[in-house]
Backbone:
């Protein structure tokens, strides 16, 4: 599973629409759509904000949790 898919699943798990997440991240809904479809990377700052909004770790989003 790629990062875009994880973001979508985490967003949906929080009951957020793309538009609601976009508002919280101060970006457009279309930007969130592009990110979720793996066509755009987030800046580190936005990535950290996203983890905070979704109440999860960066490792959860990247799929690297549990790896050492």
Residues:
């Amino acid at each position: 599973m790629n990062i875009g898919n994880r973001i979508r699943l985490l967003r949906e798990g929080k009951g957020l629409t793309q538009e609601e997440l976009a508002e919280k991240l101060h970006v457009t809904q279309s930007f969130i759509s592009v990110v979720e479809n793996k066509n755009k990377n987030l800046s580190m700052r936005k990535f950290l904000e996203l983890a905070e909004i979704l109440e999860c770790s960066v490792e959860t989003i990247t799929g690297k949790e549990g790896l050492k």
In short: The chain has one domain: 3-59. The chain has a mean pLDDT of 92. The domain at 3-59 is CATH 1.10.260.40 (434 Repressor (Amino-terminal Domain)). Helices lie at 3-13, 18-25, 29-36, 44-53, 58-62.
